[in-house]
Amino acid sequence: MRVAEPRRCDVSVATGFLVNGDGHYRKTYRDLAGLYADAEAFAAILAEKADDVAYEVTSYTPGEKTSDLIMGVTRMEPGKVGREFFLTRGHIHAKGDRPEIYHTLSGRGIMQLESPGGEVRLVEMGPQQVCYVPPFWIHRSVNIGSQDLVMFFAYPADSGQDYGIIERSGGMRVRVMDNGKGGYVAEENPAW
Ligand code: S6P
Ligand code: ZN
Q1: Ligand 1 atom closest to Cα of 159?
Q2: Contact 153 CB / ligand 1 (< 6 Å)
Q3: What percent of the chain has pLDDT over 90?
Q4: Distance of CA 149 from the midpoint of ligand 2 (Å)
């Protein structure tokens, strides 16, 4: 039996990168059009920094099978669009029964989870806290802190991502908003 080579990757918490992986992509603010509730506030951000990086993902993909694990790091800037905290686009895995693990390396965030039936879970995440995202949950991360949110993740390599599920639903069921008192509040998304 031929077996794969082990691989050690280095995580730079300071820069939010998996340094010696084999994948890297960036999402600019321009790429996130349509994600946030406050169109006016989003237009103001675009006017200021449309081509700046909102979040980026560095990863290592050892293979393409269920039994391979993609691992990587997501780094997301802090900030808000109006009262809504910065977030990743979010998705369900295209093969819905594939789970994922997220481990917060630095920053303060929320794993926002939604089941196909519309159950909502907001899992607060701080450094060295790990969230198991079970199969079939739509997931995104939200930066509710004042620093970069840096999270390590791992998931089966054949999972795939379906981003359309959120668009087709008019967004996720709740939006994570600044409560004006240094915290957050989940508000129902009327478009859902
Ligand atoms: C992939 C995994 C993460 C996200 C990353 C960016 O299944 O959940 O690598 O891709 O955090 O989020 P998104 O929603 O833009 O893919
Ligand atoms: Zn995922």
Answers
A1: 7
A2: yes
A3: 98
A4: 16
Q: How many domains does the chain have?
A: 1
Question: How far away, in angstroms, is 68 Cα from ligand 2 center?
Answer: 15
- Whether the model clears a pTM of 0.90, i.e. scores above it, the answer is yes
CA proximity to 184, closest of 78, 85, 42, 79: 85
**What range defines the domain where residue 104 resides?**
11-188
User: How many A from CA of 93 to the centre of ligand 1?
Assistant: 10
Query: Which DSSP symbol is given to 91?
Result: B
Would you give the end-to-end CA distance of the chain in angstroms?
50
Whole-number pLDDT of residue 2: 86
Q: Is residue 106 part of a domain?
A: yes
Please indicate, yes or no, if residue 68 is contained in any of the structural domains: yes
Residue 27 is predicted with a pLDDT of: 98
CATH number of the domain within which 28 lies: 2.60.120.10
**Nearest CA among 107, 76, 71, 103 for reference residue 89:** 76
For ligand 1, atom 6, which residue shows the shortest CA distance?
88
| 128 in any annotated domain | yes
In a domain, 15, yes or no: yes
- The helix or strand, by DSSP H or E, that contains position 57, with its residue range, turns out to be strand 53-60
